[in-house]
Amino acid sequence: MTEELRGSTGKLLDKASILSDLIGANRLNENFEEGFRVVTLLDRIFNEFDSWKTTKLGSDSILKAFEFALASDDIEIARKVFEIANGWLKYNDSLGFDGFETAFKAAEKCSIKEYTTDYKNTDILSEEKN
Questions:
Q1: CATH number of the domain at 2-129, out of 2.40.128, 1.10.10, 1.25.40, 1.20.120?
Q2: Any idea where the domains of the chain sit in the sequence?
Q3: 44: which DSSP letter?
Q4: What is the pLDDT along the chain (130 residues), one digit of tens a residue?
Q5: What single string gives the DSSP state of each residue in 46-60?
Q6: Are 81 and 69 in contact (CB under 8 A)?
Q7: pTM of the full predicted structure?
Q8: Between the CA of residue 96 and those of 34, 56, 100, what are the distances in Å?
């Protein structure tokens, strides 16, 4: 049973990695509707296993989603993607300065004031600006 579970998680990690890359590709190609679909698929896959929370895949996906929200020309898609990325961030907070700065800018763009305050006041942003 353990090998079966490990195999299942490995397949999910592979799918998640591909979807994470597709978020970035859709952002670069300005294909925001398809990118939103990819983010929601990745969110469903992340709900099926926990190991993404402690991996680089998790932090990379969160950053890509915040970058996607920031780049999107559709504010509703941007807000939905921001909310998904913010939900992921609750489980993996290893973004670093660039990630929190991107999250802050995306929150500003989406006019989500409670998060602009949260991200602006993070220790990492405060240290960099001083």
A1: 1.25.40
A2: 2-129
A3: H
A4: 233 334 577 899 999 999 999 999 999 999 999 999 999 999 999 999 998 998 899 999 999 999 999 999 999 999 999 999 999 999 987 888 888 899 999 999 998 877 655 555 555 444 444 4
A5: HTT-SGGGGSHHHHH
A6: yes
A7: 0.84
A8: 27, 12, 6
